[in-house]
Amino acid sequence: MARIRRSDGNAETVFSTDGGRIGPDQTPVASAGSSDGIVRVSRTSAGRKGKTVTLVTGIPPGELAATGKELKRLCGSGGAVKDGVVEVQGDHRDKVAAHLGARYRVKIAGG
User: Fold this and answer.
1) Does the structure show a pLDDT above 70 at 18?
2) Could you please report the per-residue DSSP string of 41-97?
3) What b/e sequence results for 19-49 when a residue is b if at least 16 CB atoms lie within 10 Å of its CB, and e otherwise?
4) Total structural domains within the chain
5) Based on the domain organization, do 13 and 43 belong to the same domain?
6) Better pLDDT: 59 or 7
7) CATH of the domain at 82
8) pLDDT at 23 over 90
């Protein structure tokens, strides 16, 4: 399925379920993630009806699914992997940062 933006009678594909957002040169645009080699662990409740989640960004794309599953098991809670971000339900920043510190350079982000 593709979303098409129409302007001046010309059709242009801007999103495809196969490859995500499509830029002007018709190639998929990479997801916004930090490419500085630092894994950032933060906490937020914005847009989640007051429920707190731990967010992990900066994990290499090939390791996202396995790391997400591993972190959910470690914390004993649910979660998801969306757009290059691992979400773990609850506030588990310290536990996640300590666990990932053995493999990555980790920073706790946010307050």
Assistant:
1) no
2) EEEE-TTTTT--EEEEE---GGGHHHHHHHHHHHHTS-EEEETTEEEEES--HHHHH
3) eeebeeeeeeeeeebeeeeebbbbbeeeeee
4) 2
5) no
6) 59
7) 3.30.780.10
8) no
